[in-house]
Amino acid sequence: MRHAPIAGVLCLTALACFNNLAKAEDAPKDNKAFTTPKSQVVDLGAEIDGMAGRQLRMRLLKIEPGGHIGIHSHKDRPATVYFVQGTDTVIQADGPSKTFHPGDMSSATKDTMHWHRNDGKDDVLLIAVDVFHPKK
Questions:
Q1: CATH number of 3-132
Q2: pTM of the complete model
Q3: What is the distance, to the nearest Å, from the Cα of residue 128 to the centroid of all Cα atoms in its chain?
Q4: Pseudo-torsion of CA 10, 94, 116, 60, nearest 10°?
Q5: pLDDT tens readout for residues 34-48
């Protein structure tokens, strides 16, 4: 009888892993009701040795209700995000989802692969800052 709870936990863990794989496979690859109303770029090659071809980029991103930003990787493109308006659900390709609200912040590293979804009634507005290589 002692093994029954452990078996249950193992089954739930396996199910959670399966569901995470399904999320990555089912994630949208396109963008829907997503725009970039404003952006500003600094050419880092002119500012810092060894950064040729890279930009420091800040963008205001807007996801309308029912919209999403398709699954994408941050490999070679670290980023930080400040959530300004709305409720943004960020779904990790290999992990759980997390919901962000105005005032929240997050970051994305080389190991991050995720997508964004607006399930709310208001536009999601977020400010994303990343180091970007436009030709990659």
A1: 2.60.120.10
A2: 0.80
A3: 10
A4: 140
A5: 999 999 999 999 999
